[in-house]
Amino acid sequence: MSAAITLKQINKLAIPALISGVSEPILSLTDAAIIGNMDYNATESLAAVGIVTTFLSMLIWVLGQTRSAISSIVSQYLGADKLSEVKNLPAQAIFLITSLSILIILVTFPFAAQIFKLYNASGPILDLSVDYYQIRVFGFPFTLFTIAVFGTFRGLQNTYYPMLIAITGAVANIILDIVFVYGIEGVIPAMHIKGAAYASVLAQIIMAVLSAFYILKKTDIPLLVKFPFNPEIKRFVLMILNLFIRTIALNIALYFGTSYATKYGTTYIAAYTIAINLWFLGAFLIDGYASAGNILSGKLFGAKQYKTLLDLSNKLIKYGIIVGLVIALAGALMYYPIGNIFTDDKAVLDEFYSTFWIILAMQPLCALAFIFDGVFKGLGKMRYLRNVLLFSTLLVFVPVIFITDELNYKLFGVFTAFTLWIIARGLPLIIKFRKTFKPLVQNA
């Protein structure tokens, strides 16, 4: 690796990672857009997709942290020129995480109704949430397998093949969504919300098959699990545990946001569903540069190139703010057409338009928070990430959403809480990073 990291090097990793990173939110946004335009239970179905998507995102983010842990360890060993010592780690990690995902299916499937009642779902929305979840959850192990393979590729400084896999999965999902939700007269009956769930599962299976193909064909990393466990499996598990606690804190915020939006009524949860899924899309677009930070910081840290690491962070701050502003500007230019993509319900659109500007305004702040999340994951500093998110959720987000609810701010209050939460997540990471690595560079 050269002494200086160029924009070209960052973009070579960031742009494919950006494209591959949007695969999961595209699955949910496609479901939301197609379901929101059905002529049967459209608003209730859209609300149900929002509730289930929030819960599934929680599961994926909790267990999908394998990507960050694998990427961190593999990239650090690559930087230290000791990759052969961890070649068997990805297969062992995949075995552990997919086994756990099957257990989660067995536990959550029969209790789906009870789970979504916790999100204040009731009546038709509850019934539709259960129908959608009890199909879509079977794609969960395939999603986790794909995520783990993506983490391995990232550790190897390769985001190109994950991009190809993600594009294929997204295109397959869009086609299958249209076919299964609306049906083909005389050939396939319209399955409505269930059809969207089947489409997502099939797209996730396609991505998992392609992931296995590329990792076996393009690398010498095996997928056959061999024991005993790699010595790094202990550090991997500790990383996962810290990220697990961190992600629970993250999902406490998402739970309260969804729960309060549902409490305010069907119109509000439908508007919230559109808004939060667009927020997720923005987050995953920014994740391309967060991934570059993750990938490059792990390798530089393993190689002890601290000055280059500090220079990288400065460039990522600049590029992150630019990307955030571009996303915000694009959203502003498409402010009203975006809402019409998802629904023609005027009441839902009015609520969406009244708060969408907050999501756009927070994009540069999100960029900084997510990018430094990625950098700290690359460094393997999962414990500090855990503590920051516990602080920002329990001492910032939760009190703010309680106060704004008392003030009857409704969705405005929900997204105000998210904005302050993002600030409380990002600022401590930037300060900690600079306090840690500036002295190392000055003393070198």
Question: Briefly, what is this?
Answer:
The chain has 444 residues and is mainly alpha-helical. It has helices at 7-21, 23-36, 42-63, 66-79, 89-108, 112-117, 123-136, 140-155, 160-182, 192-218, 233-263, 266-302, 306-333, 335-342, 346-361, 363-379, 382-406, 411-442. It folds into 2 domains: 7-229, no CATH class; 238-443, no CATH class.
Q: What is the tally of beta strands?
A: 0
Please give the count of helices: 18
Mean of pLDDT: 90
Q: How far from one another are the termini?
A: 19 Å
Residue share in β-strands: under 5%
> What Rg is obtained from the alpha carbons, in whole angstroms?
21 Å
Class inferred from helices and paired strands: mainly alpha
The figure for the number of domains is: 2
* Approximate helicity band: over 70%
Shape: globular
Features:
single chain; 444 residues; 2 domains
How would you explain this protein's 3D organization?
The chain is mainly alpha-helical and 444 residues long. It has 2 domains: 7-229, no CATH class; 238-443, no CATH class. The chain has helices at residues 7-21, 23-36, 42-63, 66-79, 89-108, 112-117, 123-136, 140-155, 160-182, 192-218, 233-263, 266-302, 306-333, 335-342, 346-361, 363-379, 382-406, 411-442. The longest helix has 37 residues, at 266-302. The chain is globular, with a radius of gyration of 21 Å. 54% of the residues are buried. The mean pLDDT is 90.
